[in-house]
Write a structure and sequence with these properties.
Radius of gyration of chain B: 17 Å
Strand order of the largest sheet of chain B: 5-6-7-8-10-9
Number of helices of chain A: 3
Order of helices and strands of chain B: EHEHEHEEEHEHEEEHE
Shape of chain A: elongated
Strand order of the largest sheet of chain A: 1-2-3
Helix content of chain B: 25-40%
Strand content of chain B: 15-25%
Structural class of chain B: alpha/beta
Oligomer: heterodimer
Structural class of chain A: alpha+beta
Strand content of chain A: 15-25%
Number of helices of chain B: 6
């Protein structure tokens, strides 16, 4: 395996661990977040229940990447779902 | 007959009370609130107590099913007990009939489980773990069918199947295809199409789509809060089509 292919594989394995940690680490604790690499940035997308947890995403991802010897910028593209009242008209069924 | 619904509110130890504010006026918009699972973040009784606190301002009947997150700490009975002690009707293979001024609303509730859809559904073959996976969903589908049969005998004006997992891939569009088998099962739709319902509600698929149908044409709505983008949505079942 070439060095490039080896690095790509290592990154994919690291991203797996990042997804897992985002779900089980109590700092964020959100299952199902999307983690990918775009333009050499690790991008995290998805819904997180509170702003306090959302603020922990970058630090957690950096910690996990560091254990794999990876140092890439982290883009926190997650969001906290709106909790406003419904629209004026209900759906009639 | 106005039915409010939401799922996947994921209340943890650190709730920010946003939902509590929205729920205080829910009675102005709806006659009952259905919760489609994943009420807590990790399924602890302490988090369930926070869910109860978020619901403190709700003055209409509340009916719920648990979701996978509510099972994470492996204490679902305790979670359900905390909710039930606060007046929430928690269903798992059970039914309830809510007597409203506008009529009788029947609700059959199960968490559901995975397996997939159509020709890609998992098969109960191979290792015990694989067979257990499929048989677990098959059993839940059976419980749902039995619950819908019991509701049919209750002369309800409308019947709702309340799930956490999805019975259709329609409401999963937006999620990666690779995880569809972990988001729901056609075995759930089979039960619903066989025994009938007026509306199916589910959560679980945060990146999914709001509207869909079972193969038999019964309306399915994904009411996960990230899909709704608001605290809850409301359905008017006043037409009360019996199926």
């Amino acid at each position: 395996m070439s060095d490039r292919a080896h690095d790509d594989a290592a990154l994919q394995h690291a991203l797996f661990e990042v997804r897992d940690s985002l779900a089980v680490d109590g700092r964020v604790g959100e299952l199902g977040l999307d983690v990918c690499v775009e333009r050499e940035h690790v991008v995290v997308r998805g819904a997180i229940s509170t702003e306090a947890r959302r603020a922990q995403v970058e630090a957690l991802v950096r910690d996990v990447l560091a254990t794999h010897g990876i140092d890439l910028p982290v883009d926190n593209a997650t969001h906290v779902p709106g909790a406003g009242e419904p629209s004026a008209f209900p759906e009639e069924l | 007959m106005r039915v409010a619904a939401v799922g996947d509110i994921h209340i943890g130890a650190d709730t920010d009370r946003r939902l509590a504010l929205a729920f205080e006026r829910l009675h102005e918009h709806a006659d009952v609130l259905l919760l489609a699972g994943d009420l807590t973040k990790c399924g602890t009784p302490e988090e369930a107590a926070n869910v109860v606190a978020e619901l403190a301002g709700v003055t209409v009947p509340v009916v719920a099913v648990l979701g996978n997150h509510d099972h994470h700490a492996e204490r679902p009975a305790e979670v359900a007990s905390v909710l039930a002690d606060a007046g929430v009707c928690v269903l798992e293979g059970d039914t309830t009939v809510v007597e409203l001024e506008s009529g009788r609303l029947g609700v059959a509730g199960v968490k559901g489980f995975g397996g997939g859809f159509g020709g890609s559904h998992a098969t109960a073959f191979g290792e015990p773990e694989m067979k257990a996976f499929v048989e677990h969903t098959r059993a839940i589908g059976g419980h749902l069918a039995e619950a819908l049969v019991r509701l049919a005998a209750e002369e309800c004006d409308a019947r709702v199947a309340l799930l956490h997992y999805s019975p259709t891939p329609d409401t999963l569009v937006g999620e990666p295809l690779e995880i569809y088998p972990f988001l729901g099962s056609q075995l759930l739709a089979a039960a619903i199409d066989r025994e009938g319902a007026d509306l199916v509600l589910h959560g679980h698929a945060h990146a999914g789509t709001h509207e869909g149908t079972t193969p038999g044409g019964i309306p399915v709505r994904n009411v996960a809060m990230p899909v709704l983008g608001r605290a809850y949505c409301v359905f008017d079942l006043s037409r009360g089509r019996r199926r």
